[in-house]
Amino acid sequence: VKDVHKALGGKDNYNTVMTVMSRLAEKKQLGRERIGLQYEYWILNTRESLSFLDKIKQKFSGMKTSVLVSHL
What 3-state class would DSSP assign to 37? Predict the structure, then answer.
């Protein structure tokens, strides 16, 4: 969450980013595993996740897919 918050420029509230990522994990768009005191997130390799990635990519048009994935 900290890396995504930082990659987004710190414009949004940290708790907001954390909540969104948690909800995406609940909806099976992101995988999540607790490591120590924090969670590690990753994009799930499903057709739905790829569609979700396309939607995000459209929102952040002009951003390369590899850069977008590293932000997520």
Answer: coil
- Record the tokens describing residue 55, joined without a space: 């939607």
pLDDT digits (tens, 9 = 90+) for 49-62: 556 667 776 776 66
The residue ranges of the chain whose pLDDT is under 70 are 45-53, 57, 60-72
Q: With b meaning 16 or more CB within 10 Å and e meaning fewer, what string describes 21-51?
A: beebbeeebbeeeeeeeebebebbeeeebee
pTM: 0.60
> What residues does 41 pair with on adjacent strands?
32
Within a 10 A sphere around the Cβ of 53, how many other Cβ atoms? 16
